[in-house]
């Protein structure tokens, strides 16, 4: 989800050849050679990795002006990124932002302030973060995720059924987008008859680049009103045993003295929906795109699946998270005191954005970082963060990604791009990285007893 709007049309990012980082680089970064590449243009969104390679080499902690007008420090090397993600001097609370008037409200999800949805895990520090994370973590235990797997398989097959006989599809809007939306709605306890509303609101969030101005904030407001009503309904209807969904669990925790306010419960449900769907949309979309652009790796995975070997699927999803992951920049952090990071002095109150996409292609940490290797070992990528803010829903997203990719490649074995790669468009903005559309073609699936369809 972008938090600062889309990038305006600007000249393309200049191609900067990658030069491997010297083994014995000085602690303080060298002065950049030549001008820094342009960031946050449409061309940059299509392939940000050459620009990130330049920053890693020449300006690893770089102050940049974002499309919103806010200035922030971009952290691009793996070691610095890992340090920053766990540094308690970098707060998640926007109250620590020493923001000028023009930047007010531009460092979070549009509309969350007015909708009173600020008290969620992405905006708070310990001890409140510890308390709220403990309450919600029960929904993402290995046992709960494993129990949810049959439902994800059912949703996956049902969605593929919708286009398998047609021979073509837009994998973003027909598959990668609805799958995690319906899954997270089930987990939260949103009734089936209301889930299409959530799909519409969530759709506005990921289409913000081409949608009406202010559409994201309006969708957030509608979602907040609905969540408040749902919490009231569930609180009124809960018996002693209650329902086994996440919102009901949050209500029970609040009713049993866990000090969870209604705003906290609504904000928690909102951020789980928000963070739990777009990351998985992009994991599936970016993952399929990477496999189609690397046919040797794709064939290797299909052969392993055909042989009943899921080991390559598990390491493969980790590699897809590293190679072109769903989260380009970690969410906002703010320096609570002056600190030094990567040799750069950062004043108190300044925003810091850790560029996960750059860190995960750092040649100082990963061998052949620009090569997709589904069997890669020692793959301690930062795709889902690091430290106390490590993505709570990562086990669920991994499970959804594995099932989605394995089912697609098994049911549609000759899946191929339905457009020239240069025609694909990536959503502009910050934080998330994902395709707007992913047109594909394949041999139509013939269901037993139906025969081939007439042309």
List descriptors.
single chain, 455 residues, alpha+beta, 5-stranded mixed sheet, 3-stranded antiparallel sheet, 15 helices, 10 strands, disordered N terminus
The coarse silhouette is globular
**Strand order, biggest sheet?**
1-2-8-5-3
Considering DSSP H and I runs of 4 or more, what fraction of the residues is helical? 40-55%
Overall mean pLDDT: 82
- Rg, Å, rounded: 22 Å
Low-confidence stretches: 1-32, 208-213
Q: Structural class of the helices, strands and pairings? A: alpha+beta
Element pattern in H and E: HHEEHEHHEHHHHHHHHEEEEHHEE
% residues in beta strands:
5-15%
Query: Terminal Cα separation, in Å?
Result: 41 Å
Please describe the biggest sheet, giving its number of strands, its sense, and whether it closes into a barrel: 5 strands, mixed
User: How many strand units?
Assistant: 10
Number of helices: 15
Structure notes:
The chain is α+β, with helices and mostly antiparallel strands and 455 residues long. The protein has 15 helices and 10 strands. The strands form 3 sheets. The chain has a 5-stranded mixed β-sheet with strand order 1-2-8-5-3. A hairpin with a 5-residue loop joins strand 1 and strand 2. It is globular and about 65 Å long. 45% of the residues are buried. The N terminus is likely disordered.
């Amino acid at each position: 989800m972008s938090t600062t709007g889309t990038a305006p049309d600007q000249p393309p990012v200049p191609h900067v050849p990658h030069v491997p980082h010297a083994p014995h680089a000085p602690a303080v970064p060298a002065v950049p050679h030549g001008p820094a590449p342009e960031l946050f243009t449409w061309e940059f969104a299509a392939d940000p990795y050459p620009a990130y390679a330049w920053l890693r080499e020449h300006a690893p902690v770089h102050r940049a002006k974002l499309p919103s007008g806010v200035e922030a420090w971009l952290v691009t090397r793996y070691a610095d990124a890992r340090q920053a993600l766990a540094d308690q001097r970098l707060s998640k609370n926007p109250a620590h932002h020493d923001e000028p008037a023009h930047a007010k409200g531009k460092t979070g999800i549009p509309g969350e302030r007015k909708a009173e949805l600020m008290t969620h895990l992405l905006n708070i520090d310990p001890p409140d973060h510890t308390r709220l994370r403990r309450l919600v973590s029960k929904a993402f235990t290995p046992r709960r995720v494993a129990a949810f797997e049959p439902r994800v398989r059912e949703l996956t097959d049902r969605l593929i059924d919708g286009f398998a006989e047609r021979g073509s599809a837009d994998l973003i809007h027909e598959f990668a987008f609805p799958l995690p939306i319906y899954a997270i709605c089930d987990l939260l306890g949103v009734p089936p008859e209301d889930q299409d509303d959530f799909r519409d609101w969530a759709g506005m969030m990921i289409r913000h680049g081409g949608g009406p101005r202010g559409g994201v904030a309006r969708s957030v407001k509608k979602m907040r009103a609905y969540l408040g009503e749902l919490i009231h309904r569930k609180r009124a209807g809960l018996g002693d045993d209650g329902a086994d969904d996440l919102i009901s669990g949050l209500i029970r925790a609040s009713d049993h003295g866990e000090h969870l306010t209604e705003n906290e419960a609504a904000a928690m449900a909102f951020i789980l929906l928000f963070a739990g769907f777009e990351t998985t949309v992009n994991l599936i979309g970016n993952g399929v795109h990477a496999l189609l652009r690397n046919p040797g790796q794709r064939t290797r995975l299909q052969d392993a699946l055909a042989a009943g070997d899921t080991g390559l699927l598990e390491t493969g999803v980790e590699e897809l998270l590293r190679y072109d992951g769903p989260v380009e920049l970690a969410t906002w952090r703010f320096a609570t005191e002056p600190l030094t990071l990567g040799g750069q002095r950062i004043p108190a109150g300044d925003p810091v954005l850790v560029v996960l996409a750059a860190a995960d292609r750092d040649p100082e940490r990963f061998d052949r970082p620009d090569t997709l290797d589904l069997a890669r070992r020692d793959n301690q990528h930062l795709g889902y963060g690091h430290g106390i803010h490590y993505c709570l829903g990562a086990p669920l997203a991994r499970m959804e990604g594995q099932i989605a990719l394995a089912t697609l490649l098994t049911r549609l074995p000759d899946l191929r791009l339905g457009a020239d790669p240069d025609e694909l468009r990536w959503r502009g903005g910050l934080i998330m990285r994902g395709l707007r559309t992913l047109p594909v073609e394949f041999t139509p699936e013939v269901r037993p007893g139906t025969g081939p369809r007439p042309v």
